[in-house]
Amino acid sequence: MVQKFKNVFLHLPKSFFYNLKYSFPSKKLTLIGITGTDGKTTTCTLINEILKQSGLKTGLITTIGAKIGDKEIDTGFHTTTPDPSILQKIFNDMVKARITHVVCEVTSHALDQYRFWGCNFEVSGITNTSHEHLDYHKDIESYIGTKAKLFSVSKSAVLNKDDQSFDLIKKQIKIPFKTFSIKKTSDYQAQKIKLDSNSLSFHINGQKFTTDSNYEYQVYNILLATAICYKLGISSEIIQRVIKHFPETKGRREEIQNELKFKTIIDFAHTPFALESSLSSLKKTNQGKTIVIFGATGGRDQSKRPIMGEIVSKLANIALITSDDTRNEKIENINKQIISGIDPKKSELVDYQEVKNKKQIQKVLELSNKKFIYFNIPNRQDAFNLAIKLAQPNDVVIACGKGHETTILHGHTEYPWSEAEAFRTAFRLRKTK
Fold first, then answer.
1. Sign of the torsion formed by the C-alpha atoms of 281, 167, 126 and 273
2. Binning pLDDT at 50, 70 and 90, where does residue 80 land?
3. What's the angle, vertex CA 339, arms to CA 333 and CA 340, rounded to 5?
4. Residue 14 pLDDT > 70
5. CATH number of 2-244: 3.90.226.10, 1.25.40.10, 3.40.1190.10, 3.40.50.12370?
6. C-alpha to C-alpha distance for 181 and 188, rounded to whole angstroms
7. What is the pLDDT of residues 314-359, one digit of tens each?
8. Is the pLDDT of residue 2 over 70?
9. Which CATH class is domain 254-432?
10. What does R_g of the chain's alpha carbons equal in angstroms?
11. Do domains 2-244 and 254-432 have the same CATH topology?
């Protein structure tokens, strides 16, 4: 009730004011909206690149920031959709720069809080819906219903027929829509999916698509991007060319190069579905062990924490459970909830402070051949340091949760943070010991 009051009497007037201030700039732009739980940033980035390659002048607004053409704009910490004061100014700047098409990542919070009020979308799509933000929306039906608000201000839609959201959204929307899927017959269905250590390939309606982003869940992102770009009149040749060398998205499956003969990856995966998607693909393509660094955010949906612990325990060999944005929660309590999802009969907790030399490292590695091994490490840099000590040639170390973010939030304080720098620090420490 308090949130609804704030939405109507604070957020809505604010959006109205800034639309008026900048003379409703979005009306002069062709907006493409992407909502969903996972894959929004990747899909938006892919659509933006396809539109650019087709010769259009594009803008982009995602969790990572905003782009006007090739110019990058910081939109603030820990936010996907900017505040209306920033959002409408960005739209106004885009109009001045003669941008014609803008791809927008649209969150459930933004829709609920009227941040996109006054904006109308040419076409919008949904990636998926999974366990996330239930602290705010209370239940999955309310969460999906809020996301469906995007389609009330769109001319047409693209829906994921495989997702739990499909039937509910289908009942609510009154606009034309297309569907995409892997499992069910749809307008854009992926078939003959092949995944190996170097590539991912599949067919959409008889046409073959191949990409160097060898994660199986990319099929859904590419399906949605393809359906939207077809709707905008883009040819399949341009789409195929762009996805062949998938555009890099900061903090999403981003590889950090090293000389240690194993892979180190940064991924934003911070939901149960995203963790499962990333780790299951790695399990299929990785020759060595999978070592995961992850935690859970404080002050957010607590019910997903044991689910994340369970997923990692089934798909990884070793996990280092550590801090994310703790906010005002104690890291001990957050990690305890994650660990509650791990089956004690099939796993073993090892004290990270006891792993100091090569003999102790070897003991851990031998144990990980028999069961899932995990560590409870409060400090995130310590988790990176130990993960790199444990990694052997052909292994993969993947750091999940923080992705592109440049700060880590403890209490009310934002401390500087970089996943890439955390890896590089750990590389240096391994070389010096």
1. negative
2. low
3. 90
4. yes
5. 3.40.1190.10
6. 7
7. 999 999 999 999 999 999 999 999 999 999 999 999 999 999 899 9
8. no
9. alpha beta
10. 22
11. no
> Cα–Cα distance between 101 and 89 in angstroms, integer?
16
Interatomic CA distance for residues 208 and 191, integer angstroms = 9
Measured in residues, the chain has a length of 433
Q: Where are the domains of the chain?
A: 2-244, 254-432
Q: 113: which 2 tokens?
A: 């809080």
Please give the single-letter amino acid code of residue 202: F
Tokens 């110019």 found at: 71
Residue 191 structure tokens = 């078939």
Pull the structure tokens for residue 361.
Answer: 């490292």
Alpha-carbon gap, residue 346 to 63, rounded angstroms: 37
